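Can anyone check this?
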Amino acid sequence: MAEAEDTIEWLLGLDPALQWQVMRDILDAPPSAWRPVRARVETEGWGARLLSHQDEDGQWAGGAFSPKGFDWSEWKTVGQPWTATSYALTQLRGFGLDPASESARRTVALVGRNARWEEGGQPFWEGEVEECINGRTLADGAYFGVDVTPIVRRLLEGTQPDGGWNCERCAGSVRSSFASTINVLEGLLEYETATGGSEAVRAARRRGEAFLLERGLFRRLATGEAADPAFLAPLYPHRWRYDILRALDYFRAASRRFRTPPDARLAEAIDIIRSKRDGRGRWSLEWQMPGRVWFHMDDGPGSPSPWITLKALRVLRWWDAHAARPWQPRG
């Protein structure tokens, strides 16, 4: 108990973007308590810092997916850049920037007016052809109150035969990937939360969930082996990457949204996450994606990660609350 209290105090002593989520998701504080803290994301800490890097036209680094004038040889030598508009918006959503705030409303309008995808010049809020990008843009647009129906239609049309999505579909892939699927699932969930969705959206989301659940969130269906060792090492910011904590946090959010208990097929992933808790009740960042960033929010690999710790705590809290009666899949 002392370890848990120490960890919560640690998180509460950090950034408003973390504080309000700890209050809501861990401490069950009423909205009247956490909403004023959430409002500070716009003017303090990481949220204000990221907003300070915004261009006058509403973009970041002069581009939608990549910085303006980016030398693509840098991708191979240094890593993918994370400073352009798409990833900035996703991070602001993760911080919980209030969609009704002046900064959010201004950004939505300017991005819609000025940002175009490098892939084909499409308006930003209409998405492009790649499922990972479209999934995140759907989530960001739905969260910030944009009509992203064109992206929904595109994603529903791009569902793979096995129920998920793959950003290599345009290159001929007919199998889903874990990463593309979680990006799209998060987008569909945000869209349903914002608009109520449709039966077609619900059906697609359930098929995508089944793709992950049938594989225990990380195993190959054919062999039972881990599809990628990195899936077992939680990452934050996860950008486009997949890991089991990201998936568990998605299922937690969907469970709370639709008032459904956890699926028993999540149990192995839950045990793996629980085993990674250190002696102080925290979770560490095991690896970090290379590439340009505006700033880091932790002390690097090997150090406790506040974001991974927050996600792990709320996932385990949700799971343990239902541990006596987890949902069993129908035969």
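Reply from J.R.: I decoded it. The first helix runs from residue 2 to 12.
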